[in-house]
Structures are given as structure tokens and as C-alpha cells.
Write a structure and sequence with these properties.
The chain is about 30% helix and about 25% strand. The chain has about 375 residues and is of the alpha/beta class. Bound molecules: S-adenosylmethionine.
Length: about 375
Amino acid sequence: MERTPIIVKTFHGLEAVLAEELKALGAADVRLLKRAVSCTGDLALIYRANYELRTALRVLIPIHTFEASNERAYYRAVRGEVEWSKYLDVSGTLAVDAVLSGGIFRHSQYMALLTKDAIVDYYRDRYVRRPDVNPEAPHLRVHARIHGSKCTLLLDASGDSLHKRGYRRDTVEAPLNEVLAAGLVLLSGWNDTGPFVDPMCGSGTIAIEAALLAANIPPQRTRSSFGFFRWKNFDRKLWERLKAEADARAKKPMFTLYASDKDTRARNATAINLLSAGLENLVQVQKMPFEKLVPPAPAGVLITNPPYDERLRTDDVAQFYEAIGNHLKRHWSGWTAWIISSNRDALKHLGLHPSQRMTLYNGALECVFQKFELYEGSRKA
Ligand SMILES: C[S@@+](CC[C@H](N)C(=O)[O-])C[C@H]1O[C@@H](n2cnc3c(N)ncnc32)[C@H](O)[C@@H]1O
């Protein structure tokens, strides 16, 4: 496959780190979009993007863009303007989804159905038979993106969303999305540059993503399949070579990572997930309330996702954040702490001045990710 446009989807706030990741893989024409990054690359880049990018949710290949201002024109373009047999054999299976904005077309499910009908009719015209629909594991997953009258058809190279790394065997309430957790670590700038701690680790997602980064292990090492495995042009030799090359770049981190939680179930979930990711030797796990946790070194980076407790009485959550702030001020000077929370009022009770803040989304919850430099004087801040 020669050079092709590629669109990689991510979360709001992670576009710039994703762009850096793509440049490091050799992508050209890298441009930041809303919750996505566009670039150009070849088949090797598509495979590597799926396997190696930490902040990608999905890798999409736009194959056709056209204007349509009504359903008939849309149907005709999908049926007549794309050589679908290049991508899918008539005996293969298909899934389609559609995302609409801008007002001309109104029902995304209907537009997905219309897209599917148009593709199926393309095959009927030529082969009498037609590909079946398989929403779970199709040979070809097609996304229709329609903004006003501008319509784009894209092939989904990822299949399942790339946050499904394959290592999560156990979980606790409110686990972070793996892509967001990796984004937090990359946004903090930590990369095996000192000891790392998540003192409220839950199921361990932040510590696991940090350990994968520190050890230069591809985030999808434990995932067993990608959408492009079922593509007509799947080049197994190329894939196996690229995977082996990426796996061979793994290294032993210089620094230890630490994950702790006050809850036994969370401690156990983290241990199980670390084991399934093959990282059990890189991260020390313990059951410990943060209020009693002592820093393992004079300096390092702490990244954590405390409970937001929007439903608790304000007093309780305020007191809890105040206790976190006090403990950081008294015992963690020399460290840099990063905290993500949707509870802006509670964050004020930390009693610390952030030196940086970013807006991110944890699911539908708007959150702030704040950086606190802890030094002797920060007690007075
Ligand atoms: C939102 S969850 C963290 C989820 C985690 N990031 C993940 O991906 O699974 C918050 C965690 O903080 C823990 N926690 C609450 N209070 C704590 C405390 N005082 N000390 C240590 N852990 C605490 C809870 O047990 C819970 O596991």
C-alpha cells in the first residue's frame, strides 16, 4: 500500500501527545484535529500505530470524501463511487456505523443502515450475492462521518477500541480508561526519570501504563487481535516483523514504580493486572492508606486519580482532599504530584497551588489534571 491519509482518534486534551507519538513512529503531515490527529503513512505505519501508540483510541483510513445534500445522493455516492471489492470479498462480513453533525441528516442509525444498504447493493450489482453483516468481528468495519453535506467514509484498522489492551483481568469501581491513564503519564513528562507512585491505584491502570512506558513495551503486547488482521490486504509477514521489532525495543527501567491503595480488593486487582501484563517485577504493590504512605525516595513523580465523590456530602470530600493536601505538604516535599479530579471544589481543599492545569474528560466527566511541585515552602501555599 502506498502512502495514505490516516486519522487517529483520541480523547480531548491528548491530541498534542498523540501527535508526538505519531511523529516518533515516522508519520508525515501530522496535524492536530478535535479529539483526533491526522497524518499520512503506509501500511507499516498503520500496523505500528495500532500496536505502539499509547494515546490512540482508533486508527481510521479515509477512503472517500464527497458532498451529499440528501439521502438519494448519499446512497448513490456510497454505492457508485467506491471500489468496495478492493477492501472486502463478497464472502466477507461487514459492519457500519455513522456519526452525524451539522444538521442535514438527522438519524445516525438510519444513515448507518443506508450506508450498509448502499455497500451491499454495490455487491449485488456485480455478484448477485452480498456480504453478511457481523457487528462483532467483521472483516471490514466502515465508519461514515457526515458533517453537514460533507461525507467521509473511513475503514477502521483497529476493530475493538485500542483502550482494550488485553491486560485488565480484574477491576474496581471507576477504573480509568487505559488511553487516558497513558495520556496522564505522557502529559506529566515522566518517562523513567525517577521513582513513580500511584498511592490510590484502584485496579492499577496508571501504574501499569507508566510501567509499559518505562520499559518501552508496546501497550498492545497482550492484545490478541486488530481489525486489520481480517483485511483483504493483511500482510502477516510485515505485521510479524514490525511486532517483533517493537517487542525487541523493550528495556529494563532504571527506577521502581509503586502502586498502593487502602483497599485490599484494589491491591489484589492491581497485582492480578500487573501479572497479566507481565509487569509484576516492575511495580511494587501494597495495601496502605495514603495518609500513612511514606515516599520511597527523596524525589519522584506521583500521579493519582482519587475518588471524586461527587455524591458525598461536601464536608466529607473536602476533608478527604484536605487530608491528601496536608500529607503531601508534610511528607512529600521534593516530589511532583499530579492529581486528576472532576471535583473542582474538593481540589481547592488540597491547599496547594497548581503550577499547571489541563482539562481532560474521564468518560463524560469534565476533569482537571493539576501539577503540584512540592517543596519545603509549599506548606505555606
Ligand atoms: C477512582 S479509584 C482509582 C481508579 C484507578 N485509577 C483505576 O484505574 O482503577 C480511587 C481509589 O482510591 C482509593 N482510596 C480512597 N481513599 C484512599 C486513601 N485514603 N488511601 C489510599 N487509597 C484510597 C480507593 O480504594 C479507590 O481504589
